[in-house]
Amino acid sequence: MKKVFKIAVASGKGGTGKTTVSVNLFTKITEIYTSKTVLVDCDVEEPNDLIFFPQAAIKSTEKVFQTIPVINEEKCRFCRKCVSYCEFNAIVVIPPAKFAEINANMCHSCGACTFACEHGAITEVQNMIGNITNYDIGIGNGLTEGKLKIGSAMQTMVIKKMKPGINGENEIIIFDAPPGTSCPVVATVTDSDYILLVTEPTPFGLHDMKLMIDLLRKIEKPFGVIINKAGLGNLEVYDYLKKENIELLAEIPFDKDYAGKYASGNLLNNVPENISKIYVDLVNKIIARFNNV
Ligand code: SF4
Ligand code: SF4
User: Fold this and answer.
1) pLDDT-derived band of residue 235, with 50, 70 and 90 as boundaries?
2) Can you tell me whether residue 35 is helix, strand or coil?
3) Whose CA is nearest to atom 6 of ligand 1?
4) Residue 212 Cβ < 6 Å to ligand 1
5) Measured from the CB, is residue 29 less than 6 Å from ligand 2?
6) Is residue 182 located within the same domain as residue 266?
7) CB of 121 closer than 6 A to ligand 1?
8) In this structure, are 74 and 210 located in the same domain?
């Protein structure tokens, strides 16, 4: 069976440079190892990997739907049996007011309420919650982007729907995870083989990295740390990694000149030589791990 290595790039907080690391890593892997690599933007609330690829062209797009139950108040007897079946507190039934409603943003589409209702008062409809788009970006096997519909809270569902379609012809899959440690992050990292944890050497960076490390240890995922903006802040992150015996995979120095070019939109064409070399070393470490799986 073909070997596929899935890498998630994650960070305990936003603003660490996780997306920059994901995109540069993807580009470098396709340059020096295999073009059978795809980048998957799982930050479905604010996907922005696409900004790095102005040449992107849409290959395909599909809508993501969630099955939502709807209560017909004409048929409802307001017995509240569905309420007791719902583990997600998504149903409100107030018998004296003859009120019955399902909150689509809290519903997890488990189907328990439809099963529970003995009066045929619940039917199911398809609710559009987002899009999944595949882009040809002229590099590797392209970019897959998930985008949540504005107003929907179903990030996890969109992320889960993205994954089955991307195995295809890929040897390496890079997931750019949402920031933080919530359910969408867990949905992104659970079936990854290795997690690259991006942090910055500040007290906030350390605090949020620790939360992420707790999570990864709980779900027993192997990981290593990349310190971005190295040279700013303090040395506490380094002390912590040493004390906890956690692998420091790379340090990407803060480069004022590059940061300026980055801010003005020259994203992938102006990576300084010293930073480019760090990504080459990082890719070599990752590939060595891939070959040992
Ligand atoms: S189980 Fe059916 S009848 Fe009872 S409250 Fe729920 S929707 Fe109404
Ligand atoms: S489908 Fe499941 S989660 Fe949604 S309202 Fe019904 S019981 Fe609750």
Assistant:
1) confident
2) coil
3) 82
4) no
5) no
6) yes
7) yes
8) no
| Average pLDDT in the chain | 88
**Which of the listed residues 78, 83, 101, 124 should we mutate to test ligand 1's pocket, taking the one with most ligand atoms within 8 A of CB?**
78
Residue nearest to atom 6 of ligand 2 (CA): 113
| Percent of the chain whose predicted confidence (pLDDT) is above 70 | 92
Angle at 195 between CA 193 and CA 200, to 5 degrees: 175
Under 8 Å between Cβ of 209 and 2: no
Greater pLDDT, 123 or 168: 123
User: Which of 275, 5, 42 shows the shortest CA–CA distance to 178?
Assistant: 42
Q: Kindly state whether residue 185 falls inside one of the protein's structural domains.
A: yes
Together in a domain, 26 and 167: yes
Domain holding 231, by residue range, is: 5-53+137-292
**pLDDT tier for residue 105 given thresholds of 50, 70 and 90:** confident
pTM of the model: 0.86
How many structural domains is the chain composed of?
Answer: 2
Cβ atoms of 69 and 207 within 8 Å: the answer is: no
Q: Which residues pair with 123 in a beta bridge?
A: 70
Ligand 2 within 6 A of 254 CB? no
Q: Which atom from ligand 1 is nearest to the alpha carbon of 71? A: 7
Q: Are both 264 and 160 inside the same structural domain? A: yes
Q: Is the CB of 93 under 6 A from ligand 1?
A: yes
Q: Are 76 and 123 in contact (CB under 8 A)?
A: no
Lowest mean pLDDT among 14-23, 44-53, 119-128: 14-23
For ligand 1, the distance from its centroid to the CA atom of residue 121, given in whole angstroms, is: 6
